[in-house]
Amino acid sequence: MTTSWNAPVLLPPTTLEIILEKVSSHWVPHHFSKERSIKDAINTYKLASYCGALKKEKPIILAGICLRIAWLYRIKPKQGTRRKIFKFAIEEYEASYSTGDFSGTQLSEARILYLGGEISRKIGNEKAAIKFFHSCPKKMPGKPLSSRWPDTAFRNSNGPRKQSTLCCSTDKKRAVPPGTAFYPP
Questions:
Q1: How far apart are the C-alpha atoms of 168 and 74, rounded to whole Å?
Q2: pLDDT digits 0-9 by tens, 70-80
């Protein structure tokens, strides 16, 4: 089977039918090959996330898409949306970790744990962040996360919240970090 533009379709027939019904039947023409604005990039990743969910894509793929959407919302903020997208990303990373679907990708078990901790920290889920960060050294013998340990407590002895030194850059010129890895630069 081919599509109307003669590209081979690599989907099972039932998945193709679902995408035709849920996406193609509501399609408004877009040009995805030109340079995109932040809004267009967000909409493109949202479409990828939606199609990935319909296609029952692996959680590691959906997590990476959600993380990219959250990065884009850092540049073009929308109240509460970035936090909601981070929550979706952490759910997918947890699912990926529990099923092990990340094997064969660029992400190791330790990176998934680190991402889980970092995203949990960003959304204010301190208990989950501590759990993830404390699991990292077990998966990375000889590579301590000593630069992150002060942040796992989230508060110093005087009580004020510490600012992370390993957050993603706030360089607004880069919409998406270069490369294909899902982790912050």
A1: 10
A2: 999 989 888 78
